[in-house]
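Format notes (please read before filing issues)

Several people have asked whether sequences and structure tokens are stored in separate files. They are not. Every record keeps both together, in the order shown below: the sequence lines, then the token lines. Line labels are part of the format and must not be stripped during preprocessing.
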Amino acid sequence: MSEHLEAVMEEHGEYCLRVTYLYVKNWTIAEEIVQDIFFAYYRQRDRFEQRSSLQNVFYKKTNA
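Then the structure lines:
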């Protein structure tokens, strides 16, 4: 795992997990969704233009 992804997960992981849990009401499913979100971010991180915060990006992905 890259240091960048590790830092992003450390900074935003708990937030993403809590928001996701609010929607699905299941911790296991929420964890899987958050893993998918971070994997998608990692694959497309070079496309992130930083016009908004990562937290907003993750929130939008959670609601997709």
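For reference, the curators noted about this record: The chain is about 75% helix and 0% strand. The two ends are 25 Å apart (CA to CA).
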